[in-house]
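Lab notebook, design round three. We kept the backbone fixed and only want residue identities now. Task for the bench partner: fill in a sequence for the structure below.
Input structure tokens:
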């Protein structure tokens, strides 16, 4: 049985194999080559890591601050408009039009719909001019029908029918237009949250470059110990540990963020479906949409911890360049460059 140094120099051992591969090279040239390769690979890895992390972070921020609120706002606006129409129908059926305080609910729903469109305007690039005009006309028709003609049943019926037509007319009514805007906005949210092939390619390049840096650092540590009789270089060792962390932590965080974005999209699809399939019960749908929107906001808030990881990855990627270069540079300067 072979033990000790004999085993270390066994022709079958990885150390012996790598020693044989490096034997044609002079030690100085080997260290300089390792320095150059580490610098280039670490630079590539750091750049792609920064860009990949920035893209993931941008997607999460865009979904949380713009796309998700726009989808939720359109759903809430549509349900508020439907709820206002339902409340007016209830007043007519119960003959409460004209009674003091009887129209507060439908007025509050119209106000909520108007506020919803105002908040959406800053979060979407879609043209809301036609919808805002329809909402204003619809609101005016309801107000005139319930306030000005409560003693003239025929005119009241005509105005309320006009309002209902403005709300529900196929293709051009307020509700169908809002439904169409919802579908477009949902597609925007899906495009924002989905990691494309270019982004995935960036992560692959990052991981491959970091793996190459790890192997190069191992080789440099081997050369220093085998040829120079040096113990483990602290700069190279720190760079090695840091590079391993950079290869693991950011990609796991990105995977967690992507899973969170997928879950958020699932909630947004559910919000859209509830708002579009609950015309008969807008009040119940409003409650479900409100609860789901609160859950989604909490989920987005809980995912804010990833920002610190990405900032740490940026600092770590810079150190991953500096530490190995410093370690090899100091060793070369001490052993070779000063002796010229």
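Proposed sequence:
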């Amino acid at each position: 049985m072979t033990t000790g140094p004999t085993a270390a120099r066994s022709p079958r051992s990885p150390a012996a194999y790598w020693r044989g591969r490096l034997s044609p090279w002079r030690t100085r040239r080997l260290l300089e080559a390792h320095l150059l390769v580490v610098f280039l690979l670490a630079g590539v890895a750091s750049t792609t890591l920064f860009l990949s992390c920035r893209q993931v972070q941008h997607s999460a921020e865009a979904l949380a601050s713009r796309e998700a609120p726009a989808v939720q706002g359109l759903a809430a606006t549509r349900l508020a408009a439907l709820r206002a129409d339902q409340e007016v129908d209830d007043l007519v059926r119960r003959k409460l039009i004209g009674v003091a305080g009887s129209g507060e609910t439908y007025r509050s729903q119209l106000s909520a719909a108007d506020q919803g469109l105002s908040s959406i305007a800053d979060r979407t690039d879609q043209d809301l001019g036609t919808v805002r005009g329809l909402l204003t006309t619809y609101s005016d028709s309801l107000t005139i029908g319930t306030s000005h003609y409560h003693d003239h049943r025929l005119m009241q019926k005509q105005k309320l029918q006009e309002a209902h037509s403005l709300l529900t007319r196929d293709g051009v009514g307020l509700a169908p237009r809002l439904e169409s805007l919802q579908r477009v906005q949902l597609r925007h949210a899906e495009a924002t949250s989905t990691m494309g092939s270019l982004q995935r390619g960036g992560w692959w390049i990052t991981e491959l470059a970091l793996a190459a840096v790890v192997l190069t650092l191992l080789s440099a540590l081997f050369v220093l110990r085998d040829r120079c009789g040096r113990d483990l270089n602290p700069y190279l060792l720190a760079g090695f540990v840091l590079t391993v962390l950079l290869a693991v932590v950011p990609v796991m965080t990105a995977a967690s963020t992507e899973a969170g974005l997928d879950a958020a999209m699932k909630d947004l699809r559910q919000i859209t479906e509830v708002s579009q399939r609950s015309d008969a019960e807008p009040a119940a749908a409003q409650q479900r949409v409100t609860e789901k929107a609160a859950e989604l906001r909490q989920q987005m808030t809980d995912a804010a911890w990833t920002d610190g990881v990405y900032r740490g990855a940026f600092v770590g990627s810079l150190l991953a360049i500096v530490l190995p270069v410093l370690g090899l540079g100091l060793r070369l300067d001490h052993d070779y460059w000063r002796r010229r």
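Keep this in mind before ordering anything: The mean pLDDT is 83.
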